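Annex B. Sample input.
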Amino acid sequence: MSKLTVCSALAVFLMVADTRFSFTQPMRAAIADALYPVQWMVMQPVNWVRGSAGYFQSVQAAQSSTEQMRITLALQSQKANQVEELALENTRLRELLELRERITTPARAAQILYDAADPFSRKVVIDRGELHGIVPGSPVIDGHGVLGQVTRVFGAVSEVTLIIDGDQAIPVLNTRTGVRGVAFGDLSNPGGGMELRFAPADTDVQAGDVLSTSGVDGVYPPGLAVARVDKVERRSESVFARIALSPLAQVRGTMHVMVLQPVASQIEPRPSEATVQAPARKSLRQ
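Annex B, continued. Sample output.
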C-alpha cells in the first residue's frame, strides 16, 4: 500500500511539473521525430485506398462535375471583372489617402495525418513542422474558415488545436453589426461546437449571424470566417447571454489545410522609448 501511495504521489508530481515547466518537451519532440517514418508507412494503405476510390469514379459523375465547373467558371469570370474594378478603385483611394497596403499573410499547404490521442482535447497532427518553417501560434484554415492554431511544433510534424477545443479562444467580429467578442470552444457539445462568452444580454446578435476574425490579437488576420450563430438564450438571472455557435470550418472532415504566418511576426516592432525620445532631445538642444 505504501508503494502504491509513493508511486501515485510521484506520478502526480511529475504530471504537474511537466505541465508547469514542460521538461519532457525535448523528449516528446525526439520520440515524435523517430515515430514519423512509422506513422507515414501506416498511413500509406489508407492513402492508396482513397486514391483508388477517386480513380474509379464513374465517367458520368466526372462529366457532370466538368459541366458544373464550366458554369461556375463563367460566373466567376463575371465576378472577377467586378473585383478588378473594385481593387483598382481601392488602390486609388489608398493612394489618395496615403494609406499603406493591408498585410499579406504568407501561407503553406499541409495535410492532416491523424487525430491526436488525447481524449480530453480536440487536436490533429499535420505533416509540416519546424523543418518546413512552421512556428507555434500559426493560424490554420481550410476552404471554409478558421480550423485552429498550431500549438506544438516538432521537426517534421506539428500539432494543431482545433477551434472547438475548450482551451481555444478567438477574438471575433459580428459581420452584421460590427460588435466584437471572444469565441471559445465548447467541449460539452459532442458534435463539436463553440460559444460566444461574456456577451451582455442586450447585445445585438441573432441566429444566423456570421462571425469573422477581428485581427486584434496579433495572430489571426482580420476577415477570416470563424462561426455562425446557432442559438441565443437571454436569461433573466444572468447579465450575459448564452450564445451557441457552429464552426464554419470542417473540423471533423477536412484533410488539406493552409498554415498562415502569425500576423504579429509581420508587423514592425514597436519603437523603444529611447528611440522615440532621442529626436525630441535633439530638437530641444537646437
